[in-house]
Amino acid sequence: MAGKHSSAPDKPVRDKPVRGRAKSVRSGQEPPLSLERIVATAVELLDAQGLEGLTMRRLADRLGSGVMSLYWHVDNKEDVLDLALDSVLEYRGPSRTAGPQAWHEDVVHMLEDWRAGMLRHPWSALLLPRRTLGPNILGRLELLSRTLSGAGVADADLNVALWSLWNYVIGATVTRAGFGVSDDERTAAQQRLADQSERYPTIARSRLLLDNDWDGAFRQGLDTLLDGLATR
Amino acid sequence: MAGKHSSAPDKPVRDKPVRGRAKSVRSGQEPPLSLERIVATAVELLDAQGLEGLTMRRLADRLGSGVMSLYWHVDNKEDVLDLALDSVLEYRGPSRTAGPQAWHEDVVHMLEDWRAGMLRHPWSALLLPRRTLGPNILGRLELLSRTLSGAGVADADLNVALWSLWNYVIGATVTRAGFGVSDDERTAAQQRLADQSERYPTIARSRLLLDNDWDGAFRQGLDTLLDGLATR
DNA sequence: GCGACTAGTAGTACATTGTACGAGTCGATC
DNA sequence: GATCGACTCGTACAATGTACTACTAGTCGC
User: Fold this and answer.
1) Pairwise CB contact (< 8 Å): B202 & A142
2) Measured between CB atoms, which of B168, B178, B205 is closest to A130?
3) What is the spatial distance, in angstroms and rounded to an integer, between the CA atom of B29 and the C1' atom of D2?
């Protein structure tokens, strides 16, 4: 935690180092390092190679810089992961629908977008559990919270509603991501399950994994949950 | 994947190597290595030191063996984690309640037990997303599935119900575990949130993190979800 | 012009990790 | 006694995160 661009030792405020310092010695090809570039490249790398694929060396390579240069912009690898995660969770506009029951649609849209966004970057689902709440996550929670509140959910019930929805979304996303994006993994899991169908007859009968209309199931469960919450 | 105790190269069936081979050269103190002992010790270590705390060397130390000896019983570290996770998720008896609406109580009991079990070993929640379904997890799903089916949920709706409940439990557990078991971490998060209360007014008002009746909130959300599912 | 300072880059070095390889030990069977 | 298979373990290596230190290039006051 030594020489950082924000020199105050206790308050590591993350303000962008708005500084033009054109082409350095590095033959002028690459633009200079910056937090944004680091995070964006980290996301690229994570998308391409998964969670294991991100190493500081590889990241530096892709940025055309030395490894240790990263550490001027970033505290450590955890930091990179935190930032990558939060950057992926940005929410672009709610596109408010009008009319009665609009809040129902609004909430569904927000949460489906949330899930979709995370599934687009499957590593994010694996990361979420162990990271703290970044600004974009909090932003999403705030928006959700406001929508529910506007829909008439009493303050006393707000937390339960919020957590229920959050839990549902996180659970669904994490689960889905855990079963692998690749069809290979999924079919392998299905096969393993089919092999033991005599031990788990009910599951086998319900074709738990074979039915891969995940999106539909997500939506249905969400509707159910929302209905339940609305009638409280 | 070379010399393993199950010699068939394609089917690595995990059968316990039931073999008595008393006190070896190792001064006769430690009992011989075995999968069970390895897994149990791994769980101990994980409980004590968390996910980062588990290294093959430390594990071997605790077992009083050489590091490489572990690799005769286990393919790799992933394997250890898989086994540790599943071992922690064993479900001891349902304690069937009688009477009408018994299934509701049964389900709540099963899921609360599930959550409680995982929170007793917080690393398990972090692990769950990236692991495949072990026998104990499947067993729990089977039981849940059977209970729901017995309660009259149609086969067509079974998957949605199952996933909804699963998602909810996993989400709640993962979230709770992610906020840290230690009060320090939690209060730190609360503080961070309070600092930015002007940006997230609704959340701040609802005292999202301050209200730490997690168990009650879990139960309430679960009831809501079950009600919704029952009225389908 | 000149020295001091700041922002930023990067090479080297090291401790820690998972695990491949191969040698060793012991009991049972021929 | 020779052989084999189950099991143990020391050595070695490559990969990783990062501390330390030295370097470069601009800016500012003189």
Assistant:
1) yes
2) B178
3) 32
Does the residue A223 lie in any domain?
yes
Q: Are B137 and B189 members of one domain?
A: yes
In this structure, are A114 and A62 located in the same domain? no
| Same domain, yes or no: A75 and A116 | no
Handedness of CA B40, B44, B45, B50 (dihedral sign): positive
Contact A160 B224 (CB under 8 A): yes
φ, ψ (nearest 5 deg) of residue A138: -60, -40
Where residue A130 sits, what CATH number does that domain have? 1.10.357.10
Instruction: Compute the nearest-CA separation of B61 from chain A (Å).
Output: 27
Residue nearest to nucleotide C17 (CA to C1'): B55
- Is B8 within a domain? no
B73 CA vs C24 C1’ separation (Å): 18
Domain range enclosing A71:
35-88
Query: What pLDDT does residue B10 have?
Result: 33
Write out the two tokens for B51. Answer: 């996910």
Split at pLDDT 50, 70, 90, the class of B126 is: confident
Determine the 3-state secondary structure of B152 from DSSP.
coil
Q: Tell me the pLDDT tens digit for each residue of A168-223.
A: 999 999 888 877 666 666 677 777 777 777 888 888 887 766 666 888 999 999 99
Interchain proximity A174–B174, CB inside 8 Å: yes
Cα–Cα nearest to A220, from B149, B225, B129, B175: B225
Count CB-CB contacts under 10 A for residue B67.
14
Q: How far apart are CA B129 and CA B126, in angstroms?
A: 7
B63 assigned to some structural domain: yes
Q: Which residue of A has its CA nearest to B168?
A: A168
Interchain CB distance below 8 Å, A208 and B162: yes
Q: How many folded domains does chain B comprise?
A: 2
Residue A21, burial from CB neighbour count under 10 angstroms (0-12, 13-18, 19+): exposed
Strand C, nucleotides < 7 Å from a protein CB: these are 7-12, 16-22, 25-27
